[in-house]
Write a structure and sequence with these properties.
Chain A has 8 helices and 2 strands. By secondary structure, chain A is mainly alpha-helical. Chain A has a two-stranded antiparallel ribbon. The longest helix of chain A has 24 residues. In chain B, strand 4 and strand 5 form a beta hairpin. Chain B is rod-shaped. Classes of the chains: A mainly alpha, B alpha+beta. At the A-B interface, helix 2, helix 3, helix 5, helix 6 and helix 8 of A face helix 1, helix 3 and helix 4 of B.
Chain lengths: 196, 344
């Protein structure tokens, strides 16, 4: 599945072929859902965002000229809708959805973060599922600007140039944000797990 | 590069986004700096953990739900647009023709409305003009005026009908002349005859009375009587002429009869034709009975006295004809060339 194939499907959609658009939906709905989920933090909200994103893409399909890849264009739509949803959620809740200082929900109940420990690594005693939960929580704790560059680069493998185009930011800004986002997740993980 | 600069470049170094020079400097520094080496290692592991996060799957209904919304929107667009314009090759020409038809029809309706406002004036004007320019002239006008306005507006031009009546009169013989002292009686008598025998104007002669009599042709023609030269009173003659005008069939002619007694009818006939031509008259009919020649001519009323003079030179004019009452227009004259049997 390359960008050429996407271009053909987009072209067909622009001519009124709804089946071509359905193929694009099937191809990229998972990717868009994961992006949205990592930004808004809620599965149901992320599903709604993705639906809205694809419908918006269809409505504006004729404005897509093919200067960039279709995934880049679609991700931009998804990012914008996700940010809007996040703002609505914050305005409803009145505070950050998640903070590094908030108690962390685990299967055993709430757990507060412990200060850094110099004890031997606990990675071997913890299951991978726990580590993943912790990583997700640490990503969730990031501010939106840092979260999105981390998700786009480390989870979705977009290039610096593409990320810069989607976020309308210079490449240097993207690199700097990404470094800080990674450093914060590293520190967050070290708090939970000790040495990485 | 400084220690802190290198620490901040480690993220880019992991992604391979540094220049060759920067890469060399970083690698040289990492060989000697344990802190930076440790930080680099932690950073790699962090990125590894982030990349290994499992992706979540969309619900099974998501594609269906998305496409249901998309199809609904497409249908709305299609129904309006498609109905109006598709198929292009069929509907666009039809719609273009329809627009053109409406435009042309509107234009013609507008044009039709404009002249309609003037049409109501035209019949009145035409009717008035027609009356004025009537070929029957004053007689027909008087006939028209004699009728009421309602009747007038319904009247059909009478010339054809009268002409048919004239045809009948053409073959009627004129009434015999009445004595002068009874001129008044015959005139009313003639006038009192049925309507199909209209009487023309009566001429007043210097030497004798004239008797009005019906005559062939459209106008009634008066016959001049010889011998008695008793002139009718001018008022009486005028009244008769007015009555004759009213009864005239063809409104523009007042006929006269001149009888000329000649020695040689044939020669006189040739001479009469020349005189008529010189005076601008036109011969409308010729009659050639055994002993005479008859010409029915039309001539300008002003030329009538000249005609009489010429005819007097040819022979004895038995009937003196008066000057036509009207000096305008043309008059019809019946010239009879009769063999003078009294001459040797």
């Amino acid at each position: 599945m390359g960008s050429d194939d996407d271009a053909a499907l987009v072209s067909s959609t622009q001519k009124g072929d709804l089946h071509a658009f359905e193929l694009l939906v099937a191809r990229y709905q998972k990717k868009m859902l994961n992006i949205s989920f990592r930004l808004v933090g809620d599965y149901d909200d992320a599903c709604e965002v993705v639906q809205d994103a694809f419908v918006s893409a269809y409505r504006n399909i004729k404005t897509f000229r093919g200067d960039a890849k279709f995934t880049t264009w679609l991700t931009t739509i998804t990012l914008n809708l996700s940010k809007n949803r996040l703002k609505q959620m914050r305005s409803r809740q009145g505070h950050e959805v998640f903070s590094l200082d908030d108690p962390i929900q685990t299967d055993e109940g709430e757990m507060t973060m412990d200060p850094p420990s110099y004890e031997p690594s606990v990675l071997d005693r913890m299951e991978k599922r726990d580590i993943q939960t912790k990583v997700q929580d640490c990503i969730k704790a990031l501010e939106a600007d840092f979260r999105e560059v981390l998700v786009l680069r480390d989870m979705q493998d977009f290039s610096y140039e593409e990320i810069g185009a989607m976020l309308k930011a210079r490449e240097g800004t993207v690199k700097s944000r990404l470094f800080r986002a990674r450093e914060m997740v590293k520190e967050c993980l070290k708090k939970f797990m000790g040495e990485l | 590069m400084e220690h802190n600069d290198i620490r901040h470049k480690l993220s880019e170094y992991i992604d391979g986004a540094v220049t060759g020079k920067e890469k060399a400097a970083i690698e040289t520094h990492l060989k000697t700096c344990l802190q930076c080496s440790g930080a680099l290692e932690e950073l790699r592991k962090t990125i590894e953990h982030v990349k290994t996060i499992e992706e979540i799957d969309p619900p099974a209904w998501m594609t269906l739900k998305i496409m249901a919304t998309v199809r609904a929107e497409a249908e709305v667009k299609k129904s309006i647009f498609q109905r109006l314009f598709y198929p292009l090759t069929v509907k666009l020409p039809i719609q273009a023709i329809a627009v053109l038809f409406v435009a042309v029809t509107g234009f013609y309706i507008y044009q039709a409305i404009q002249p309609a406002s003037r049409l109501s004036e035209v019949p009145t004007q035409e009717f008035a003009a027609r009356n004025e320019a009537s070929p029957a002239g004053t007689v027909q006008d008087k006939l028209a005026k004699a009728d009421g306005p309602a009747v007038r507006s319904k009247k059909v031009p009478q010339t054809p009908a009268y002409k048919s009546l004239d045809m009948k009169l053409e073959y009627e013989k004129p009434a015999p002349p009445a004595p002068m002292d009874k001129a008044e009686a015959p005139a009313p008598t003639a006038l009192a005859k049925p309507a199909e025998q209209p009487v023309s104007a009566k001429e007043e002669s210097a030497s004798g009375k004239m008797v009005a009599s019906p005559q062939a042709g459209a106008p009634a023609v008066m016959r001049e009587q010889a011998v008695s030269a008793e002139a009718a009173p001018p008022a009486e003659v005028k009244q008769k002429l007015e009555r004759q005008e009213l009864n005239a069939v063809s409104a523009d002619k007042v006929g006269l009869i001149i009888i000329v007694r000649v020695k040689d009818v044939k020669a006189a006939a040739r001479e009469v034709e020349q005189v008529i031509a010189r005076l601008g008259g036109s011969i409308t009919r010729r009659e050639n009975p055994e002993t005479k020649r008859v010409y029915v001519i039309t001539i300008n009323a002003q030329k009538f006295p000249d005609l009489k003079k010429k005819l007097k030179l040819m022979g004895e004019i038995k009937d003196e004809a008066a000057v036509p009452m009207s000096q305008d227009g043309r008059v019809e004259v019946r010239i009879e060339l009769v063999l003078d049997s009294a001459q040797p």
